[in-house]
Structures are given as C-alpha cells and as structure tokens.
Design a protein that fits this description.
With about 400 residues, the protein is of the alpha+beta class. The protein folds into three domains: about 270 residues, Beta-lactamase, CATH 3.40.710; about 80 residues, Sandwich (Peptidoglycan synthesis regulatory factor (PBP3), Domain 2); about 30 residues. Helix content is about 35%, strand content about 25%. A six-stranded mixed β-sheet has the order 14-16-17-12-11-15, with no helix packed on it.
C-alpha cells in the first residue's frame, strides 16, 4: 500500500471514530471536494452540503442522466446493433464492435460499471437516433425533474461548454434513478455477465468505493481534466438509504474518502427501529359463530432509520370479525408504517391459522346466544299473552 493510502486510511479511521461518538447534531468533517451534498433518499431532505448549487463540470456522472432517459424511455430487453463510435485517447470504453448485438440492459451495465462512452453513444442512438437529439431529451428530463443547476451538452460527460450540474442536483437525480429497481440492481453490482452478447462476457466495476465499502450500493464515478474527480455515492445502513455527491476532488483516493466520511456522518444521525417484525401479532379478529379470535400476523419485518425528533407510527387496517372458511396465511388486513408522517412500508397481515366453515348447529347456537335477550323478551311476551287469554276464557 502506498504512503498516501496509509495516511488516508489513518485519517479515515480517526474521523470515523469521532463521528460514531458524535451527537446527532454534529457537523460533518472537512472535505477536499469543491462542492458536496448529502440527502436522505426516503424524504429528499438535505443532511449536509457545501456549495451544493454551484454549477460545475461533472465528467462521467453525466451518464446518470443517460441512464435515466434510457430506463424511462426504452424497454431493457430490446436488442440493438452497436453503431460505430470514434473515441479520443484515454476514453473509458466497453469495447463494442460495430454491428454487435447487445441488449439495452447490458448497455446500461457497461455504461455504469465500466463507464463506457461507446455504451452511452449507443444508448443515445437507440433512444433518439443521434447524440444531438438525445441531449435534447436529457435536458427536457432535467427540467421536468427540477434540476435547475443542470444542463447537458453530450451523453458521455466529456468536458464541453454547457455540460454541468451541481452536487445537489446529482443527489436528486441519484434518488430518482434508485426508484427504478432495474437501475438500482445495476448500480449495486460489483460484477455483471453480459448475456446478450456472444460469447458472454463478464465485466467488473471501476468504482473502487463500491468495491471497498460493503454497505455501498452505487452510483457513478467521473473524472476529466476540468471536473477533476467526481463521485455520486449511495449506501444503506440502519434501515436508511443515503445519497451523496462530491464534485471536484484532486485524487480518486480523496474522492472515495470524502464520500465515505460524508455517508458515515449521515448514518451517525440515525438510530435503527423495528416497528414491525415478521410473525408479530398486530390484530385479532373475532370469529363469527365461534368463541375466540383469529390472530393476524405481520408477513414481514420493517426496519427503519429514525432521526432525532421523528416519530414512528404503525396503523392497522383489519376486519373486526371474520367467518370461515379461511386458509392459514390468507391476507386479511395490513399494517402501515410511517416515520415523521411519511409512509415507509405497507405490510400484509396474514391469518395465523386456518378456520373451518361453521356448522349449522354452531350457527344456530351463535344466533341464539347473540339474540338471547330478545328471545327472552319475546318468550316473556308470549307467556303474558297466554296467561291473559286463559284468564279471559275463565
């Protein structure tokens, strides 16, 4: 390991220890980045920032919008033929051959894991027919997402006038991208097998942060002369998903350290709660025609991260009374978990055991028991009438 890496690791250890012991309102440590931002992916709340709206070149994190337009507009299973791409020296490439058949999904893997400029160009042509038309789509989507600090000039991320964004906009775009399960899986991949190409090909991510941090799950690196080093990172701990962006760092090592420090700081603001656990009885429904109640159990657990001042609530929606036949595990209600008033999860409630259909005798007995007072009153009335009639007859 180089001396620089040893020093960086030592600094990281000290900062991480200080953040673990820090109170919830502690300030984040100093960073090397020109601008940075950290948000809660659940709510979009900004947890920390510096020059977060400064418009800066963003290198290959431009490809995040290329990916967004792709997953928004194209079917991922569509297979296309690779078109020619003429790179300049030093560009990141997936290594496509002209005319090669490849799926949109595999192009996305090449775009995110390998930062392939040829993959970006092919996605642009597949979606819009040319880079120029695709860039117009990129800017339309940016405007629709409210990315007011962002403008694109190419789908690749090469330094070009008019291609810029901000740390804040990058986190917002990252949040929107992770809402697509297919993209979230790609962003979290360390390796992938491109199955649509022949022969099949295995690729590995160039994102060292993703490779070295177990809880990291995305999203995209970038580096050019003008942008320096850029990283939009993401991680999940304590039931919390956070997204960070650091822009304009001199070295890849400092970029990764800044990202880790920023995310660890964010996680230090949360504590973990388990408002619902799998198998937990959350409601009991009365059984019609029988004595007793049917327990309703949570189908799965819910783990959430909660910041100071946020309240967790579980609301139950379930029937007051049920009637057989009911199979074991049948869904009979739901539990909704909210944190700070925002819905986090909806969990099905399942019958803890089966119920047989009530017999005719049970139904009759239940009807009598439920209406015993009225039956007694009716019988009393009949007896009174009988006595009265007898007396009158005499």
């Amino acid at each position: 390991m180089s001396a620089r890496r040893l020093i960086g690791a030592a600094v990281a250890a000290v900062l991480l220890l200080s953040m673990v012991a820090a109170p919830a309102d502690a300030r984040p440590p100093h960073f090397e980045a020109r601008a940075w931002a950290l948000i809660d992916a659940r709510t979009g709340a900004v947890l920390a920032s510096h020059a977060a709206h400064k418009k800066l070149p963003i290198a290959s994190t431009t490809k995040m919008m290329t990916a967004y337009v792709t997953v928004h507009d194209l079917p991922l299973d569509k297979v296309v033929r690779a078109v020619p791409y003429h790179p300049i020296y030093g560009e990141s490439l997936l290594g496509l051959r002209t005319g090669q058949r490849i799926s949109i999904r595999d192009l996305l893997y090449g775009l995110i894991l390998r930062s392939g400029n040829d993959a970006a160009h092919n996605l642009a042509v597949a979606a819009a027919g040319s880079d120029a038309h695709f860039v117009r789509q990129m800017n339309r989507h940016a405007a629709a997402l409210g990315l007011s600090d962002t403008h694109y000039a190419n789908p690749v991320g090469l330094d070009e006038k008019g291609n810029y964004s901000s740390a804040y906009d990058l986190t917002v775009l990252g949040r929107r991208l992770l809402e697509y399960p297919a993209f979230a899986k790609i962003a979290d991949s360390r390796t992938a097998v491109l199955r649509s190409v022949h022969p099949e090909r295995r690729i590995e991510t160039i994102d060292d942060f993703l490779l070295e941090v177990p809880w990291a799950n995305g999203i995209k690196t970038g580096h050019t002369f003008a942008a320096q080093y850029v990283l939009v990172g993401a991680g999940r701990q304590k039931g919390t998903q956070l997204i960070s962006a650091v822009v304009g760092v001199w070295t890849a090592e400092d970029r990764d350290l800044d990202t880790r420090h920023l995310l660890e700081y964010g996680f230090s603001l949360y504590h973990e709660r388990h408002p619902v656990r799998a198998g937990q009885v959350l409601s009991r429904a009365e059984v019609r025609y029988e004595d007793g109640r049917l327990p309703l159990r949570a189908a799965r657990s819910v783990k959430v991260g909660v910041r100071r001042g946020q309240r967790t609530n579980v609301s139950i929606r379930a029937p007051h009374e049920v009637e057989g036949p009911i199979r074991r595990g049948a869904i009979l209600g739901s539990a909704t978990v909210t944190v700070g008033g925002m819905r986090i999860a909806k969990v099905p409630l399942r019958a803890a055991h089966a119920l047989e259909e009530a017999s005719t005798l049970d139904k009759a007995r239940s009807v009598i028991e439920d209406n015993l007072l009225w039956l007694a009153l009716a019988l009393s009335a009949i007896l009174v009438v009988v006595v009265f009639l007898r007396r009158r007859t005499r």
